[in-house]
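#structure-requests
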Amino acid sequence: MQNDTSSPGSVAAEHSGAETYEIRKHHHALIGLALGAGAARGWAHIGVIERLVEAGIAPRVVAGTSIGALVGGCYAAGRLEELKAFAASLTRRKIFSFLDISWTGGGLISGDRLTGLLDEQLKDVRFSDLQLPFVCIATELMTGHEIWLREGEVAPAIRASYALPGVFKPVHHNSRWLIDGAVVNPIPVSACRAMGARLVIAVNLNSDAFGGTVIQQSRGRTGDPRRGPHSSSSMLRQLIGSGDEPGLTTVLVAAFNISQDRLARSRLAGDPPDVNIVPRTPDIGLFEFDKAQEAIESGREAVDRMLPDIEYALEVLDRAAEY
């Protein structure tokens, strides 16, 4: 596996109007980044990575679960800017166009259209091609085992990691049926430590337990309501929800999010990160992928709040290395 981090380190984006804080000297500790699950709030990971790199804190190993696997995989492949551009282009109507409803199999959404988008960026890219070590977390459906994907093609591994139970179909990968890694490890701190990280920075997207998790607010209809109860737009409203009434997928994801939050607290208590970054995203619903800019900005702000703590932790590790 190649360890050249020069390309990921170059992803810093221009950002005006914010105070700049840069780590004042070069530190030698191996930094790991654990990117957690959180559906649409996961776009905050993009802002986190951008701001860390700008401040001179380029992660050397990355582990991701669900949306964290998507962002982490694109970062490791040097495709973060492309992912950011895609996220910024999303509208509510465009999001609906990606939801290929399937009434057969193990999920409401087949995921084929999203697979096509992922393949455009990562087709035939293998873990051995990445610019830094990356682990993708999934769950084996039949056994409940936590699976660390770090060999073979990257795109199928990412698809398995975000295969939310009941929403997306399970992914058959390496002779196993896999589902969302958040079922067993929502914030993969342990994977970063296993890859040798001396300082682990975790990004927790599920701290706002009461912040818009359950009800997905509707911001207008898509399509003509006169088309009847069996129109595609009507079915989407039943799945996503309308007004103050949650739809089927909203209930599934919200229930899963609540369980994942409890599991994350337990896992982080047993294996805490050295730094815990918590983007504030209470106004971003779990399906509001069109709020990318808001989420990215929340990620940047979350890093700014923690930069002094990160620098202090790095200085302590440097002193420890001298003994």
